[in-house]
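Work through what follows:
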Amino acid sequence: MREYFNFFILVLNRDLQIYLNKKSDWLSTLLFFVIAVCMFPFAFGPLPSALSWLIPGIIWTAALLASILAQENIFKLDYQLEIFQQCIVSKNSLSLLIFAKTLANWLVTGLPLVGLGPILALSFGLPLSTILILALSLLLGTPFLSLIGAIGAALVVALPRGGLLLAIIILPLYIPVLVLATAACVLSLQGIDSFGQLSLLAAMSVAALLFAPLAASVAVRASIA
């Protein structure tokens, strides 16, 4: 058990160090998120009362797109350096390797979205109660995005340009999260309790945590074969 834990920490620290050395990769993803959220309102004109109902959906849509950008090359370097093959030969857990890499990716790109989303929502004048629900929905929902995105990234890891295919694969799987998270925020705006929607988001992330690393490892093995 200790051996697996040490392996997990080693991979996590390695990936976090890589992200720190290549800030442009994940900073561009966060910048895209901010720009996308700020551009959407221009399409609706000066309608602040109507816009407040749209902001949660806008923020979550931008978060979905930013998540796809963040996931596109998550496994590329390890695949090119044949680290996956070395992991298989050395009898280390490929699922644990993938989970550690996914967690590192979420810490660098997903977790900042949890902080940026409420700040952007505050700038649009959303009530504090709704901003809190938005923050909770991002905290509970973005792990699901990262975990499901890892499966898609594993499926296209052997392709030289798999970004478009990755989006086609995982965007339909993101729709339930978008619906639940947006519904939770809209219910909050109406003064209705949104505990049910948030609970479902948490349940989906837990379920993804249980099966996504294993599914991604199977996809990586198929790509290597």
Observations:
- The chain has nine helices and no strands.
- Residues 94-123 form the longest helix (30 residues).
- The radius of gyration is 18 Å.
- The mean pLDDT is 89.
